[in-house]
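Quick check before the chapter quiz. The format below is the same one you will see on the exam, so make sure you can read both the input and the output lines.
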Amino acid sequence: MVSSPHLIPCIESAAGKDRSSTFHQGSSVGAQVSKVPGSYVKEIACGGRHSAVVTDAGALLTFGWGLYGQCGQGNNADQLRPTLVPSLLGTGVGKIAAGLWHTLCVTEDGQIYAFGGNQFGQLGTGSDQTETSPRQLEASRFENKRSSIVSCGARHSALLTDDGQVFAWGWNKYGQLGLGDSIDRNIPCQVPITGCRPRNVACGWWHTLLIVDKSV
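Here is the expected output.
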């Protein structure tokens, strides 16, 4: 247990040193050490027992509990230090969100990847199968819309597109998907919203909030 702020070395930034420090690739045991792409961390997210960071170069590193594959390493091993997600190297991850047992990320060109626990369809893949490696969601589900913001609740997920449309999926016992019922969804479903334009979306453990612009 750490009860006070604790520095986690992800990228070396000391003056006079190479700003690309080391990351660990693969399992924490017997991991290979390489250079981390990027100069600084630009995004962070915390799930139930795992964490994720994104560098300015679009590299995704994860660490923590890995039982459901939520670290995206292709296995169920825990990651004891920030570890590169190798299958996403070069995709340019822009945004990241972490739920209780799952993780979502959006690339700079708007593609969505999901991995981890999927008991309630929270990955949006159309099944309840756990994914230990990042799986790209089908672009057809969003009618070629570009995703800009993604958020994870405990067992549900939501995203906002550039043109202000909201999609939600996963656990829906309390109506947190905003679809007018309490039926779980395992694919992204558009949330009907009229009279305003959503600008941001955030998922709580069992609920969802939007910031909207009513002037449009």
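If your answer matched, good. Residues 22-213 form a domain with the Methylamine Dehydrogenase; Chain H fold (CATH 2.130.10.30).
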